[in-house]
Every structure is written in C-alpha cells, then in structure tokens.
Amino acid sequence: PDTVRLLSSAQVITSAGNVVKELLENSVDAGATSLEIKMENYGLDRIEVRDNGQGIQASDTAVMAVRHYTSKISCHNDLECLETYGFRGEALGSICAVAEVSITTKTDTDDFSTQYSLDVTGKVVSQKPSHLGQGTTVTVLKLFKNLPVRRQYYANTKKCKEELKKVQDLLMAYAIVKPDLRLTLAHNKVVLWQKARVADLRSALLATLGSGTVAHLLPCRHDQEQPQITLDGFFPKPGVDYFSTSSSSHDKTFIFINNRPVQQKDITKLLRQHYTAQYQAESNRNRYPVLVLKITLPPSSIDVNLTPDKTQVLLHNKEAVLTALEALLVSLYGYRSP
Ligand code: ADP
Ligand code: MG
C-alpha cells in the first residue's frame, strides 16, 4: 500500500508548481482574499501558502489530508453544479505522500490556531496551539524526498528557474481571474511579485500585465443562450502587431473556462489563426498574441477530470463554443477562415 500510495500521489503532484497550484486553489475555495506564497530553494526545501480563508473546522482536521476526503461535494450530482476548484480530495493526501506537511488553521469561532503535523498517509500525528490569525497555512518541506530521481530532475539550475517561472505565470493567471485576491510570492525571502486586491477584470489586467500591454487590448463580449455560452475577451486591437516576445510560447495567452486556467489547443489555434491572419502568419509562427479569454459555460457541460491537474477540459458542446468564438473574432478582425 505504501508503494501504491507513493506512485499514485506522484502522478497528482508532479512539481513544485503543482503544489503551489493545489494549495492556492484550496485557499480560494476557502474564500481567502489574501494569499502569501513563500518558497525556498525553488520549492524543493520549502513551500508555504498562508491564507485568510474560513479555516478548517476542528472536526475535519483529523481527515483533511486523508486521500479522497473532500468537504466540497457529497454526491455525484454536486459535480453538475461545481463551483470550487477542488472536489476530488486528492491534493493534500498526495502532497503528504511525497513531502513533510504541517497545517496551521483557525476558524472564526476558534480561540486560537492549531498546528497539525501530518504523516505520510495524511493522518495527524501531533498537534499544538499556535498564534496565527484566522485562515490556513500549509507548509510543505523536503518535496520529493522519497522520489530521488524526481528531486534530482528538478534540482538542476535550469529546471529550477523554469519551475519558478511557471509558478509566476500561474499566479498571474489567478490574479487575472480573481481580481479581489491579494497575492504575494517570495522566493528565498525575497519578494518576487505581488498584486493588490482590485475591483474588476480590467484592473486585474493592469495590475498583472501593466498599462503598456493593456493599452493594446480591446474588451469584447459574446453572450448566447442555447447552448448557453458567454465569452469575455481582452483581445489585441485590430491593426496592432502585438505579440508576446517571451520565449515560452503560451504564457501570455490566458484562457479560462469557468474561472479555471486551461490549455485548450483548438481554442488557441483559432485565436492565433484570426489574429495572425492580419500579418504574415508565417513569420509569426512561434509567437503568441497577448490576450485573455474567459469562457463561461454551465458546469454540467464541462468535464475537468481529464488530467490530474485539471488544465485540460472536455467540452460537451465544443463546436458551439468554437463557432461563438469565431463569430466574435470575425467581428473584431474581419478574417474568415477558408
Ligand atoms: P479538495 O480540494 O479536492 O477538497 P484537498 O486534498 O485539496 O481536496 O483538500 C481536502 C480538504 O481540506 C478540503 O476539502 C477542505 O475541506 C480542506 N482544506 C484544504 N485546504 C484548505 C484551506 N486552505 N482552507 C480551508 N480548508 C482547506
Ligand atoms: Mg484541493
């Protein structure tokens, strides 16, 4: 059972960035408006995520990190109207299987916070009172200590830097989709990035991409019934040749489905096709437009259970979504695909 647990957890938790993503999503699910992320040695030595969310009820703490425990859904039907990032109860348990984890938490009715140390199976092995305010702090030490090959893989400088960059891209995506979230990222005690709470999507874009970039973007919207599809975009203004010059290809094309940052190949392809059609598409092959697209669909029409990290989403009505997006793009850029 130990080996099985290790192997299946190793599939859920694949990198330091992955740990940050899972902890961040738990914090947002808990209603947090402020999140502090601290990493040491690129997350291999320490990852700490502190939030000001609702905290974990004392009655739940015994099972919170046991695999498959979740407080978010109680029956299959709940999946049809899912509004939380998490629902499988896999993250905390999986992190416990590949690192040393402790959780400090306080709800609004607790008199003080309690720090829980967890073992490799996610069970609480000890607890003690502590002094933190309302919310939850998860501390992850010695990531992949029992997966030496993986630890070694991430330990080289190039990989480390890539991973930290991924964490920053990830935070940017959540900063955009959750404007009222305050976010801070520190690495080896140096604050690398932070974003204040703001009121709306446009302000969130200003705070994350900067006014220079936002000046090149145009807000646009498509809203339809049957099937119900809402598209909210900030697309490059027609006639402006504005591409990300960043070497990693996707990181300035932000696509969200029901507030989840996702990678959707055919949507990205369609966006590029229409936008680059204005220019010599050939020379722009490896450049991606800087843009934001938020797709909102009824929760029952999407399936996020394709990959453990939920970044690939199956759409029940994909053709209709592509058609709606195409209409929006045609109205903006005037290009019709052959
Ligand atoms: P899931 O998010 O799929 O429910 P997790 O393993 O990520 O599963 O978390 C297990 C449970 O622990 C959650 O359902 C929630 O009850 C609790 N939990 C985890 N992180 C937090 C947090 N930051 N604040 C409040 N509760 C949390
Ligand atoms: Mg979770």
TrEMBL record:
Coiled coil: none
Protein family membership: Belongs to the DNA mismatch repair MutL/HexB family.
Protein name: HMG box domain-containing protein
Organism of provenance: Muraenolepis orangiensis (Patagonian moray cod)
Lineage, uppermost ranks: Eukaryota, Metazoa, Chordata, Craniata, Vertebrata
Residues of the full protein shown: 6 to 343 of 935
